[in-house]
Write a structure and sequence with these properties.
PreATP-grasp_dom_sf; D-amino Acid Aminotransferase, Chain A, domain 1; Rossmann fold; binds adenosine-5'-triphosphate; 3 domains; 17 strands; nucleotide-binding; Dna Ligase, domain 1; binds magnesium ion; single chain; alpha+beta; 9-stranded antiparallel beta sheet; purine biosynthesis; 12 helices
Length: about 350
């Protein structure tokens, strides 16, 4: 099939590579310049977006900021209606969706301006995270607050745009589920993986390692199905959760949803028989999907450095992925998947090695 992806960043490139493996053809649109790009090249084709849309059998995206102009051109070639995922790009609408579908989430309240923010905080109990309604990623557009803190600096920053106030959750750990829903409405999910954030940015993911209470997988999958079915979603999607409590008492709260392939699924490029990118392509083209295997894998994000150290390129168990992007502080420029053997994959061993390896990046 001929697949057109809106967006040509690293996620678009990895989707493109998966499509090649499946024998499909794939082109990418640079959604800022409207250039039509082959996979793995900076050289644009001499094609208009209209031509690319006419060429494609199916159109999909690497990021959820889809313009109305692209939607109008793609029409029925988009298998998920973009207006259905629109609430997920606005924190108030996203939280309302979770409430409507009865999916547990941190207590929250929306504000439209700084007066409303001040009002909410005047009555707020406990610590809070304030998040801008739109545009935040990698912890940007977020502020922390606790009773007793001066609210003036907050009103001058967080209060300058609509947002939400959310209870700070004392979580046990953070996990995510990545999976796909097909055109037939079947869902296929990987096991929950553990995500460790530093300064609001995903630092590393542990797949097939963390021992989580077994009931959480069933809860996560049922919420995945409820959400993707309600959205009429086709393709790969990720849900980030906080795990609250331990053992049989443990429960999940949804933090946010990414209606696309996701950083916390990058381990699957080497740690599964079917990567999240291949899963997305199969879901949108109707190709068969196998039972999804998981080999214990540590995914380390490479953030803000000009290159991946030679140590990793030469390491027998490491698979580095370099995105070819200019390094800037806090910018994700690559990731490294490290295959772990059974014996060394106890939680503590991996956690301490992940910390050490992260310092080498
Ligand atoms: P992403 O890059 O994943 O899209 P984002 O900028 O959209 O991130 P969130 O995922 O909402 O932001 O928050 C980033 C991180 O901040 C979370 O993974 C978590 O570690 C912390 N965090 C966010 N909200 C809360 C909360 N209510 N309680 C505790 N920690 C939180
Ligand atoms: Mg986010
Ligand atoms: Mg997040």
């Amino acid at each position: 099939m001929k697949v057109l992806i809106l967006g040509n960043g690293q996620l678009g490139q990895m989707l493109g590579q998966a499509s090649i493996q499946l024998g499909d053809e794939c082109l990418l649109i640079n959604t800022r310049t409207n250039q039509v790009m082959p996979v793995g090249s900076h050289q644009a084709l001499d094609w208009s977006v209209e031509q690319a849309m006419a060429w494609a059998d199916v159109v999909s995206w690497e990021h959820e900021q889809i313009s109305d102009a692209h939607v109008a051109l793609a029409q029925s070639k988009l298998l998920t209606r973009p207006e259905q995922i629109k609430p997920l790009t606005h924190r108030q609408h996203e939280k309302s969706l979770f409430d409507r579908l009865d999916l547990g989430t941190a207590p929250w309240q929306a504000f439209a301006n700084k007066e409303e923010l001040a009002d909410i905080l005047a009555h707020w109990q406990g610590r809070a995270v304030i998040k801008a309604a739109e545009g935040g990623y990698d912890g940007k557009g977020q502020w922390r607050w606790q009773p007793g803190d001066d609210i003036q600096p907050l009103l001058a920053t967080a209060g300058q745009q609509p947002g939400i106030v959310e209870a700070m959750i004392p979580f046990h750990c953070e996990v995510s589920i990545v999976g796909a829903r097909t055109k037939n409405g079947d869902t296929h999910c990987y096991p929950l993986v553990e995500n460790i954030h530093r300064d609001g940015i995903l630092s590393h993911t542990l797949a097939g390692i963390t021992k989580l209470p077994s009931h959480l997988q069933a809860v996560a999958e049922s919420w995945f199905t409820r959400l993707t079915t309600d959205l009429g979603y086709v393709g790969t999607l990720a849900i980030e959760f906080f795990v609250v409590g331990e053992g049989e008492q443990a429960s999940l709260l949804i933090n946010e949803v990414a209606p696309r392939v996701h950083n916390s699924g990058h381990w699957s490029l080497t740690g599964s028989n079917c990567s999240q990118f291949s899963l997305h392509m199969r879901a949108i083209t109707g190709a068969p999907i196998p039972p999804l295997s998981t080999q214990p894998t540590l995914m380390l994000n490479v953030i803000g450095v000009p290159e991946i150290p030679a140590f990793f390129w030469q390491h027998g168990q490491a698979a580095p992925f370099w995105y070819g992007k200019e390094a800037r502080p806090g910018r994700k420029v690559g990731h490294i998947n490290i295959a772990l053997d059974g014996q060394s994959s106890g939680d503590e061993w991996v956690q301490s090695h992940a910390e050490q390896l992260q310092k080498l990046v």
